[in-house]
Amino acid sequence: MSTREKIFAAVVVTFFVCVVVWAVRTAPPTPPTIAPDDIDPPTVMEYEGNTIVEEVDGVVVWELSCSKMRIDSVTQLAELDNVVAKFYQHEKDKVWQLTADKGAYDQNGKMIYVQGNVIVKEEGDKEWQLTSDSGVCDPNSKLIHTEGNVVVTNNEGAKLTSQKLDWFGEQEMLVATGEVKIRKDDVRAFGDLAYSNNGFKHFGLMGNAKLQKGVTDDSTDF
Length: 222
Prior knowledge:
CATH architecture: Sandwich
Mean pLDDT: 80
Number of strands: 14
CATH topology: lipopolysaccharide transport protein A fold
Order of helices and strands: HEEEEEEEEEEEEEE
Distance between the termini: 112 Å
Shape: elongated
Helix content: 10-25%
Number of helices: 1
């Protein structure tokens, strides 16, 4: 082998060694082996614009939708943003709607909890409307319990305020309790409990009931 060939061979060997050293030093470290039991998957899954539908014999009885939903796979509790719930009374051709800023749905107990600008109303004619700060709804029995700044109004100008109110959807009856005040035309009514089952067009009072007729003084308004 000539001197030139020896020098060329030495250069090739040196270059090969340098490449190997560089590859070893720059190679990413081998990840540690992790047993499947050591992995804790996230329990909360987030969805955009999800809808929950409840059917009986292929007929939708209620549905719950929102702009964003976070579901905990362990507790089965779903947190909701911009809640819209609809309850169908097909035999009466009516649809009731519940809306709120925030909510939660317990998939085990099938209960809906809402808070912030809670509004309950009948779609279509909208004969009356209920607003409150918070509420709890049993969608299957169509029972809604609301609390905090409860206000009920109808299309005849009547208004009711109370601390709490229960709406029984099947019977289309409302029961208000706690510092109940009612205004309709020139009538002012006060009591511990009030009830109505005809779109709040007529009502009854119980407990320290007081009724005033011919009221023209706005100072008694509310």
